[in-house]
Amino acid sequence: MIFNIRAIRLEDAAVYHSLVDEIKDEGQYLFSTLRFSLEDTKKYIERHEEMSSPIWGAFDEQGTLLGWIDFNRGGFSEIAHTAMLGMGVKKEFRGQGIGSALMDACIENAESLGIEKLELEVFASNTAARALYIKKGFFEEGIRLKKRKFEDRYDDLVCMGLFLG
């Protein structure tokens, strides 16, 4: 599959917003199914642009957004050396190297900004994502048991980290 990685721009807001909602609708991978407005999505993109930490998108040759990744830096000076990572890949394109390429772009961007540690949280049932994170050098830091209850099923939350530099 041919795709390119680039920063998601304001003009991509509608397709980014749609993809996030699509993955939320699956109900398995993101923390919440709560939807945000398109206006809030635009503000989120602008905030990332202002911080020089864009939301990275994988786009196919037709310009379709296949996946995204971003990170949010710790808000207090004592944790500003860390950032929390989040990502998603369109269901029919998973397992084709998109997540890996997005992860590479994000890690490179984080290193260029002097971030010392990336962190993420993933549900224990998401074994494919966990395998990708381990392949990229992340390690498990802890497990929060029964963190999520969705449709009467519990899922543990696995906390992972990656030291950069």
From TrEMBL:
Name of the protein described by the UniProt record: Putative integron gene cassette protein
Keywords on record: Acyltransferase, Transferase
Record CDD domains: NAT_SF
Residue stretches making up the N-acetyltransferase domain: 3-165
One Pfam match: Acetyltransf_1
InterPro entries for the chain: Acyl_CoA_acyltransferase (IPR016181), GNAT_dom (IPR000182)
Organism this protein belongs to: uncultured spirochete
UniProt lineage: Bacteria, Pseudomonadati, Spirochaetota, Spirochaetia, Spirochaetales
GO molecular function: acyltransferase activity, transferring groups other than amino-acyl groups
